Amino acid sequence: MQLPDFIRNFPALDIPFPEETVSTHAIRSDAGLVVFFEFHKDFVLPPHSHLAQWGTLLDGEIEFTMGGETNTLGPGAVWDIPSGVEHGAVIKAGSKAIDVFEEADRYQLRG
Question: What is the rounded CA–CA span in Å between residue 56 and residue 94?
Answer without folding.
Answer: 15
